[in-house]
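From the methods appendix. Each design record in this collection lists the tokenized structure first, followed by the designed amino acid sequence. Records were kept in a plain field format so they could be parsed without special tools. The example shown here is representative of the layout used throughout.

RECORD:
FOLD TOKENS (371 positions):
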């Protein structure tokens, strides 16, 4: 499958894509080359909640009915994400094989299996290559290190910061973790972390993807940066105009080779650039974000969703700041309030944005932002 096929297929079957081309005054007969592809307006990730709200559940993007999907997930936003078929729908087996995961591995999958698709993304990919999966999910550090020790787990999938926490818990228990390899995504692997894991005898690899698109790029140990997945076409574009750029930083815009959920010219909101000399095939990684959402512990926090829930709990003036001290993401919410914020408020906000916030009350705020 290639981008030409998916453009033609989506035009006939995806009402969202058909209408997007119609509004732009073009048809598929105008799209002959990759350069022509840039004429298609970018569909921004930040637009998905509103688009889906007007046409549940997938905003007219999907080409099959919701009751034909294998699973439906809800990511922060809220954004509904489909899984149309069982198996490696998100394509991460390609990345895991490049990271030398094999059928002889026992792998602890520490991504959540609840609502958002990350847990299933890696569970299905690991099963495709024949590895044994421990569906550990998030949290429960003591139980997780006990499983690693008892079952002699050889592989880890999750965020690097959580693996650091597991090593701390293992040290407290006097365990020597048997891990040999780790695959990270959703969070930056710092050089300090990488060296720490290497000292523990763990080979590390990274991947980049989204809940909407699945695997988009990954390290392969052969060349610099991250290799673009075979399941997508990536363009680096000006975040405002959508014009393609080959020698500057820009937004990662994806055309996904998926007939059931054909995201075409989809603006992820992530900023990257091409590795010099590898334009079109390798990106340097994620350099930042554009738009009104930020990533915290691998989960997106959308500004409007946070504003709405904060109003519901009685705080219309607030400032949300994401920090990363010692490699740990933390969402701090500053509020004007004389008293400490009740625990019920914290739990309510957490239940909506899916990230645990730290509330700090101050005498006066000068801005109300999410950054």
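DESIGN:
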């Amino acid at each position: 499958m290639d981008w030409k096929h998916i453009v033609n297929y989506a035009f006939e079957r995806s009402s969202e894509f058909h209408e997007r081309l119609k509004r732009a005054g073009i048809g598929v007969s105008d799209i002959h080359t990759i350069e022509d592809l840039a004429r298609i307006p970018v569909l921004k990730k930040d637009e998905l909640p509103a688009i889906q709200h007007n046409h549940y559940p997938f905003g007219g993007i999907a080409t099959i009915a919701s009751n034909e999907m294998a699973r439906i997930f809800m990511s922060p936003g809220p954004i509904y994400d489909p899984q149309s078929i069982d198996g490696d729908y998100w394509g991460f087996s390609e990345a895991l094989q490049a990271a030398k995961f094999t059928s002889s591995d026992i792998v602890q999958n520490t991504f959540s299996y609840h609502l958002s698709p990350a847990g299933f993304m890696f569970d299905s990919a690991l099963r495709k290559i024949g590895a044994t999966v421990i569906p550990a999910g998030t949290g429960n550090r003591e139980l997780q290190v006990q499983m690693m020790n008892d079952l002699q787990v050889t592989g880890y999938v999750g965020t690097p910061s959580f693996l650091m926490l597991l090593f701390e818990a293992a040290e407290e228990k006097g365990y020597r973790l048997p891990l040999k390899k780790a695959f990270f995504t959703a969070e930056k692997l710092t050089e300090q972390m990488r060296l720490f894991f290497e000292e523990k005898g763990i080979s590390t690899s990274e991947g980049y993807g989204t809940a909407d698109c699945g695997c988009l790029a990954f390290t392969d140990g052969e060349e610099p940066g991250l290799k673009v997945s075979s399941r997508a076409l990536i363009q680096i574009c000006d975040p405002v105009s959508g014009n393609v750029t080959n020698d500057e930083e820009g937004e990662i815009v994806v055309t996904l080779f998926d007939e059931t959920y054909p995201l075409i010219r989809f603006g992820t909101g992530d900023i990257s650039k091409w590795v010099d000399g590898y334009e079109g095939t390798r990106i340097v990684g994620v350099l930042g974000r554009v738009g009104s959402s930020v990533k915290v512990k691998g989960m997106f926090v959308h500004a409007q969703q946070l504003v709405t829930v904060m109003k519901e709990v009685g705080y219309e003036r607030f400032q949300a700041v994401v920090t990363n001290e010692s490699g740990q993401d933390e969402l701090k919410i500053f509020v004007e309030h004389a008293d400490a914020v009740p625990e019920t408020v914290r739990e309510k906000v957490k239940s909506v944005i899916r990230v645990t916030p730290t509330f700090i009350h101050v005498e006066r705020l000068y801005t109300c932002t999410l950054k």
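APPENDIX NOTE: The chain is about 30% helix and 25% strand.
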